[in-house]
Amino acid sequence: MEPFADRFTHLEQFVNHEIYEKHERFESMTIDWQPLIELIANHESFVLTTHCRADCDAVGSELALAQVLESLGKQVTISNGDAVPAHIGFIDPSKRVRVLGESVQASELWKIEALIVVDTSAWVQLGPMAEVVRMFPGTRVIIDHHVSGDDLGAEVFKNDQAEATGRLILELAEALGAEITPEIAMPLFAAIATDTGWFRFSSVTEETFQALAKLVAAGADPPGIFSALYERHSLARLYLRGRILNHVVSDVEGRLMSTHATRQDFDETGANKTDTEDAINTLHTVAGSEVAVLFVELEDQVTKVSLRSRTDFDVRAIAEQFGGGGHRAAAGVAFQGPMEEARTAVLDALRTAMG
Q1: What is the pLDDT of residues 140-170, one digit of tens each?
Q2: CA-CA distances (angstroms) from residue 163 to 67, 69, 125, 315?
Q3: What is the H or E stretch that residue 99 is in?
Q4: Do 262 and 212 share a domain, yes or no?
Q5: Which of 19, 110, 262, 290 makes an SS bond possible with 255, Cβ 3.0 to 4.6 Å?
Q6: For the chain, how many structural domains are there in total?
Q7: Are 239 and 178 found together in one domain?
Q8: Residue 3 scores a pLDDT above 70
């Protein structure tokens, strides 16, 4: 590894706008990273966070960004509002992600110079970390690919056309001149692969595969990542999937498919909330399905609603009616109310909108 002094000089060179503009690496950039390059050069310590019930795009982006910043000699802490879900635990083998109130306290985080939120810009999704972000005395940054969001009082680096935040982290790493190591490549490949439904969503472009090629060349192992994600599930997860499929309802002449998971389903199968991951995509295996909805009962008065579209129907517009957001083809809501109320309200809105 090159000496820190050399690496910092390299970073300072990239702060020079003329070099930045001329460097061929930036021809495919989707964001002007220059302000963030300067911010990183001017700060020594960073805390990274993301949304609760994090997925591979969220955690993978955190872990890869931490490695990139540390390669530049920075001090990095990763702190989330809850633990990394068990089914994606493979992505953090060294247990770098700390949990607020357990392995790290807010008072420690407020001493850090800069805070970077990845893969969300919504207060409600931050959970316990929302208060940390709200009270953070230093510089705040957002790196995200979602359309919807709140004003977090941060400098925003967002591309809502990007298929995953992981690809934006790869762009930033290249803009900083960081070496893409296997430790960076693995979580970023998992981030992009999962947020594209293993490359089957309409968000996939030529640039997606160009990014993936770089990550594989740098040491990402696609078969190993796929196996860790989809071939090591618990029996409880399989039982829960059976319950979810048994609850499927066809509506709007088969164009709208919905299903749900109750707390009773979780209790009786022994599954946990993260075991619903990817279940909604099974609904799109039915011929004629255009919109899919999954309702998950989290608490008596909180229902998680996931929406997916495989046509030009905008599910984000529906989610926003209930305080949620996301993308045109994939959106979500933390519905404040019991499941039956959520199902009635959201499905009625969908029926009306779908005609």
Answers
A1: 999 999 987 899 999 999 999 999 999 999 9
A2: 22, 23, 19, 16
A3: strand 98-99
A4: no
A5: 290
A6: 2
A7: no
A8: no
| Token pair listed for 52 | 């609760």
By residue count, the chain amounts to: 355
Q: Are residues 300 and 166 in the same domain?
A: no
* Angstrom distance (rounded) from CA 314 to CA 331: 9
The predicted structure's pLDDT at residue 17: 36
Q: How far apart are CA 93 and CA 334, in angstroms?
A: 30
Q: Do 243 and 191 share a structural domain?
A: no
Q: Which of 119, 116, 114, 194 is nearest to 149 (CA)?
A: 119
Give the integer Cα–Cα distance in Å for 228 and 218.
Answer: 19
* Statement: residue 124 has pLDDT above 60: yes
Q: What is the span of the domain harbouring residue 161? A: 4-229
pLDDT band at 129 (very low <50, low <70, confident <90, very high): very high
d(CA 261, CA 104): 32
Where does the pLDDT of residue 59 fall: very low under 50, low under 70, confident under 90, or very high at 90 and above? very high
CA distances from 68 to 46, 64, 92, 102 (A): 12, 6, 15, 26
